[in-house]
Amino acid sequence: RLYLNFYKLDKVITVEEKFIKRIKADYEKADIVHIPISANIPKSEASEEELDAIRKKFGLEGKKVLSYFGFAVPVKGIEYLLRCMPKLDENIILLFINELNPSNEYHKTLLELIEELKIKDRVIITGFYDEARDIANMLSASNICVLPFVNGLKTSNGSFLAAYNQKIKVITTSKNDEKDGSGIYYVKPENEEELLEKIKYVLEDKSEFERNALTWDSVTDGFMKAFEN
Question: What is the pTM of this model?
C-alpha cells in the first residue's frame, strides 16, 4: 500500500538499505535516500583507568569478556549464546547488560538454562541501567558484543547501534550473505555451532578496524541534504 504514495512523492527516505532494492524493483523511478538512524547510546568517552574500574567492579579482571546488551525477549536468541559458553575457555565471561527477572517466563527459562549449563559463575548479570553513559562504558569494557538475533540484524536495531558506536568487535546474525568488515562479524541465525566458531575466531583475530560512531547530528545532516537536493 505504501507504493501508491511513491508516484506523488519527490523523494523516499529509508532507514533500511535493503528496502532500496525492493522499492526499485517495483518502481525504478523512485528517488531513494538511505539515512540510517543513530543509537541512543553514545560513544564511550571513558579512559582506560575508568574501564579497568568497571572490569574490577564486575570481577572481569584478566578475563576475556563477551557482552550482550538489550531487552531479553525470545527474538534476541540469547539461549544460543548461553549454550556456547560451556564450550568456550573458562577464562571467557559473559557480561549481560540488563536484568533477568524470574517473574518473566522467558527470563526464567534463561536463568534455568544458566543453572543447567553450570555457567552461573561465568554469566555476570548487571541489572537494569537507564544511564546511556554507563551502558556505553560497560560495552566498551568488553572485548566482543554478541547479538544473535533470531530474525537477523536490522540496521535500525538499537542494541546493535549501541555496540557499533563503541570501539569493540560485534558478532551478530544475518539471513543474507553479509561479509565481515569494520569489526562486524556475521553468522546465520539460530546456528549455535557457527556462532561458537565465530566467537572463537574473533577472540583470536588481531586485525584492526575503523568505523565512525553514528550520531543524531549525522542523521539530521542527512535529512537536510535530502530536503535541499
Answer: 0.85
